[in-house]
Amino acid sequence: MINHISIQNFAIIQSLQAEFFPGLCVITGETGAGKSVVIEALSLALGSRADKSMVRAGADKAVITLVMDGLNGPGGAGEPGGAPEILTREVSASGKSLCKTDGEIVTLAALQEITAGLVDVHGQYDHQSLLIPERHLGLLDAYGHDLIAPVRRRVADAFAVYRGSRRALDEVVRAASASERELDFLRFEASEIDAAKLNIGEDEELISRIRVMQSSEKIFETLARVYDILAGEGADGVSALSAIGGVRDGLAGLSEYGDAFAEMAGMGAEAYYNLEELESRARAARDSLEFSQADLDMAVARLDLLDKLKAKYGGSIESALLHRDRARERLANIEDSGALRERLAAEAAQAELLLKSQALALSDLRRKAAERLESAITEQLGDLNFTDARFSAAIETDENACTETGADRVEFMLSANKGQPLLPLVKVASGGELSRIMLAFKSVTGDFDGIETMIFDEIDSGISGATASIVGEKLLKMAANHQIVCITHLPQIAAFADHHYVLEKSTDDENTYTTMREIAGQGREEEIARLLGGRNVTETTRKNAEELIRLSRGAG
Description:
Blueprint (H helix, E strand, L loop, with lengths): L1 E9 L2 E7 L3 E7 L5 H11 L15 E8 L17 E7 L4 E5 L2 E3 L1 H8 L3 E4 L13 H8 L1 H51 L6 H13 L1 H16 L8 H14 L5 H30 L4 H20 L4 H67 L6 E8 L10 E8 L7 E2 L6 H15 L7 E4 L8 H14 L4 E5 L3 H4 L4 E9 L4 E8 L1 H13 L5 H17 L1
Parallel strand pairs: 3-13, 3-14, 8-12, 12-13
Antiparallel strand pairs: 1-2, 1-4, 4-5, 5-6, 6-7, 9-10, 10-11, 14-15
Helix pairs in contact: 3-4, 4-10, 5-9, 6-8, 7-8, 10-11, 11-12, 14-15
């Protein structure tokens, strides 16, 4: 809701401040006082196109500020992430335009997006939500909400399932297109690792064995010498093992003379058995040292192969074997993808059939709702003197282009006069005629379109008498749940106002000035009388004005 407007140096307005309130706010004034200028300023603050001609002559810039409050529900003004409380628009004499929301500079597109759901301005302005075809589907669904909403939710759920199945299928199809190239590569890697017949720890064993083979001559000579010392006969005809055997036997004979001798005998026996084991191992090791150059070459080649595979597949035999297992798993998945693709394709087809079925059911409900909406709006148009008007909520259905909202595209069409074809709303009328057409629509859709403030300019163009009173009644009825701002020169409409403002123009030797003030009581009766009788306000016109106000209150 608009709470306050400040206009500085805009067109013929030098400085104007006004408070607005809930209900029906009517603005009247003499011709040329600037009534439409106020609406133009409001529209500019909401994001309409700017032009340097809007700047008052002699001023550097025009500044329009709106204070918004009282927005209903989550995201309203003053709430985190909600609509801004203050909108500011500046237009310089050079033509540059600046937009601000709560003091922060924003782009014009951002301003338009922010204000799109706040205010509708009906007249020759940009902020008319009903002229945006993309909103028509939502309005039709809101009109038939009780029946449409559950089916629309089912369509959204079906679309989510279909979209998920299509994404899964598309991913498998994309993978399949690359899988043939990948298959050969994976098969090569797995085969290469399998052919090597890797064994964990084999590389370390090879390194040790190669070192032995490369030093086999030195090792053989050392082992032979050790064996000769232990088992052969020395210069005195006694081997080391025989000598230690004599030590063992001699000490064993002393065991009976005390524990100390017994302990020494034990040590002698242990030494003998250790040397006997050493002699056996030295002989076996010496005899096994029979390596050929071919054996060494084979071991070196095997170690080189292992090193290459380790470098290629992760740095170890363990990582190479793990890589092979993963390659086999990937191979199995790719080779099984054909069956998976068939299953996902079947699931996607089934999901699409369900989506289309739900979407067509939704389309049927929309067509029934469209018939009711067409009848209701045509009746409203008739009340507003469009006796030959035809309205259509045109629905185009393409079941092959379903989205979460169904398969329909909706656009409101109108023929305002007999013999004229149905055309999109934006091409049908302009000015006051369009304002009345929008009033007819808003009388039907206003309770569910989410727009809290509606502004009507030139709504009384081309009407008078009974039609004007009907317009006033409809505006007052809508004002029970909305803020309505209306410019009029007809007393039959002005009489319905909850808040009445009058624009007044004055001049001095150099400039023209426009001011706006709220009037009530006798001042309001005088203004209604002026609208009834022009410059010649008489007691009769005053009484007529008083009666008109009284009757309008009864209608409300």
